[in-house]
Amino acid sequence: MKPLNNKVALVAGGTRGAGRGIAVELGAAGATVYVTGRTTRSMVSEYNRPETIEETAELVTAAGGTGIAVQVDHLVPEQVQDLVGRIDQEQGRLDILVNDIWGGENLVEWNIPVWEHSLASGLRMLRLAVDTHLITSHYALPLLIRRPGGLLVEMTDGTAEYNQANYRLSLFYDLAKTSVTRMAWGLSKELEPHGCTAVSLTPGWMRSEIMLDHFGVTEQTWREACQQEPHFVISETPRFVGRAVSALAADPEVHRWQGQSLSSSGLAGVYGFDDIDGSRPDCWRYIREVQEAGKPADATGYR
């Protein structure tokens, strides 16, 4: 019996990266997963990437769940409202909401002060990172709270502890990622009376499709990228954070995490799951103790 049989999930922003990894792992646990995004086989977003929501949905089904692809721009309230209405009509419930919408990689100007950074790009980055999550929560949470035990996962980059101590090299990016953590904390207060849980969650250095392409490697040859960036040795697949979400969703005591900032590696230590290669990368500890300490790249003891 799969732990998430009869559970319904919405992975908002599931075209690629963490969203895809999460959707697939929820499917592997037996969930019905609605996968949303802008890129379909007939329409490509400004990313101009090959990944599609249909492909993610098919991977969900192949893993053992039921994948349903729905094209949605989460900046358009009417589209999100229609999406939630469809889920309600088809399933009558929503047990897991993962807000993973992002889409700002190509907008960040690293190590550029705010007065020199493109204002249009910076403000759009904030809209993609914050407005989309708020719009989705506004429409989806009334369905989630119909039953106690619902789970909201706000995806971000960096734990609250790490981001509090480290500037993320762009004011717009820093605001985008820290805002989502605070959003999860605030939503935990609003969900508490309904017996539902909200958390923020970060992967480590993730081997997304975009990151692999950046280094000119594949998932099979990813270690070759360590010749360009030695600390890439601590990287993890999107499925690792997917297993973190699946473990949370299957935990009858998930409420213990209410409002907290969590990481894939931290949850792996609690729930005992590994990445798909059998390793357990501890990225944020590695960054602090090895990379930022100026030590040579060596993942021994960190994965």
Q: Key features?
A:
303 residues, globular, alpha/beta, Rossmann fold
Outline of this structure?
The chain is of the alpha/beta class and 303 residues long.
Structural overview:
Helices cover 42% and strands 12% of the residues. By secondary structure, the protein is α/β, with parallel strands linked by helices. It has one domain: NAD(P)-binding Rossmann-like Domain (Rossmann fold), CATH 3.40.50. A 7-stranded parallel sheet has the order 3-2-1-4-5-6-7, with helices on both faces. Helix 4 (119-144) links the parallel strand 4 and strand 5 (151-155). Helix 3 runs parallel beside helix 4 (119-144) and helix 4 runs parallel beside helix 6. The longest helix has 26 residues, at 119-144. The protein starts with 7 loop residues before the first strand and ends in a 12-residue tail after the last helix.
Topology readout:
Blueprint: E1 8-12, H1 17-28, E2 32-37, H2 53-63, E3 66-71, H3 77-91, E4 96-99, H4 119-144, E5 151-155, H5 160-165, H6 171-191, E6 197-202, H7 209-215, H8 238-250, E7 261-263, H9 264-271, H10 283-291
Parallel strand pairs: 1-2, 1-4, 2-3, 4-5, 5-6, 6-7
Helix pairs in contact: 1-2, 1-8, 3-4, 4-6, 8-9
